[in-house]
Amino acid sequence: MPEDLVDKMAFNKDGERKVPLFAERVNGKYIVAAYQGSLSEYDILIKYRQLENESWSRIRTPKHIHWAVDILIKMHENKEQTQSFLDFLVGVWVDTEPIRSTQARDQILDLEYLLEANSGEIEQYEELSEQGEYSVKFLILLAKLLMIQEKTNLETAYMFKNLLDALRSGQDIFKIVSIATHRGR
Questions:
Q1: Which end of the chain, N or C, is more open, meaning fewer C-beta atoms within 10 Å of its C-beta?
Q2: Global confidence as pTM
């Protein structure tokens, strides 16, 4: 992991310096990082920074609601392609495994593992990057990390899947917001 990314993504909490286990640039506009979480031995905490007006934002924790709003914007602009993208993500959800060992965590927290297997989907849905805030590559990476995090902490977790299903079926905005803002952390 490049030292400049470690420096950009390290932060202090309770007087202790938190250094990422994984940090990668995405589309030159984002830095995504994963840290050792506190809920379990293999829990991961996800953070990111976004390039805004030629400077990096503060370190942020992604929320399901941010992700859902971006998908709703994309849905408004290109419903058919966004529906297809959501179908793809449901398949990712089904295939996502929790982290149960250090070896599995090391493999999972590798950009090639997280994205390269989906390079075709990134290209297929790239047009959606023109709407909303986030690029498709960033959304796929973030979705995978959130799914891994959720399933690692509770293998029977289903919040992200419920959010995908609500978005796919065109649930009303109140239902989507309710699912996306459930306070699990």
A1: C
A2: 0.87
